[in-house]
Amino acid sequence: MNRDKSEALFKKAINLIPAGVNSPVRAFRSVNENPFYVKRAKGAYLYDVDENEYLDYVSSWGAIILGHADEGLVNAIKTAVEDGTSYGACHPGEIDIAELIIEAFPSIELLRLTSSGTEATMSAIRLARGFTKKQGIIKFRGCYHGHVDSLLVKAGSGLATFGTPDSGGVPEDLAKHTYVAEFNHIETVKRIIREHKDIACLIMEPIMGNMGVILPEGDFLKDVQEMCQQSGILLICDEVITGFRVTYGGAQHIYNIDPDITCLGKIIGGGFAIGAFGGKRRIMESVAPLGDTYQAGTLSGNPVAVRAGVYTLRYLRDHKELYDLMGQRIELMRDYILKIAKKYDIPYYINATTGMFTGFFSTGSVNDYEAAAACNRKAYERFFKQMLSEGIFFAPSQFEASIVTLCHKEREISKTVDSYDKVFRAMASQL
Ligand SMILES: *Cc1c(COP(=O)(O)O)cnc(C)c1O
Question: To which H or E segment does residue 263 belong?
Answer without folding.
Answer: strand 261-265
